[in-house]
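Lab notebook, design round three. We kept the backbone fixed and only want residue identities now. Task for the bench partner: fill in a sequence for the structure below.
Input structure tokens:
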């Protein structure tokens, strides 16, 4: 893990300015990953503060971990992080993978302390983990205020 001096976590770019998959830690201890955004089959536009999953067309993963989407139907239900900007499709951006974050969209369900997953969630948000097979990627810190503790795999 490295500190990258001068990153703008809200910036987007049509060409990669960093190595896709690069992880950075900011002075406040939060972790970010550099990825490429894809709108998916449902053409789900990126919104800062929305959750993204690893892009897996029609839910079938090919192991890609540097392309993300908010279109939950085009993920394998594995959460990737929280968007810090609103990139267009194929643009590069930073997603938050560690530390506390405030989501734009309310959780599908849940209470403070609940483990969260994209399984069963709507586009751009998270739901309570209901099955042992659902991957946990965050915990609700204050569910009513949409504050989560990110535990996304880098």
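Proposed sequence:
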């Amino acid at each position: 893990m490295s500190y990258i001096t001068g990153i703008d976590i809200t910036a987007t770019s049509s060409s990669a300015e960093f190595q896709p998959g690069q992880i950075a830690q900011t002075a406040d201890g939060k972790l970010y990953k550099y990825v490429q955004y894809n709108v998916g089959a449902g053409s789900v536009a990126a919104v800062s503060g929305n959750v993204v999953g690893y892009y897996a067309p029609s839910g079938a993963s090919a192991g890609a971990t540097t392309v993300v989407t908010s279109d939950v139907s085009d993920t394998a239900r594995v959460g990737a992080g929280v968007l810090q900007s609103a990139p267009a499709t194929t643009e590069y951006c930073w997603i938050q993978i560690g530390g506390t974050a405030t989501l734009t969209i309310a959780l599908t369900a849940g209470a403070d302390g609940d483990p969260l997953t994209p399984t069963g969630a709507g586009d751009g948000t998270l739901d309570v983990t209901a099955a042992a097979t659902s991957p946990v990627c965050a915990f609700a810190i204050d569910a009513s205020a949409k504050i989560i503790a990110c535990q996304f795999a880098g």
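Keep this in mind before ordering anything: Residues 118 and 126 are 5 Å apart (CA to CA).
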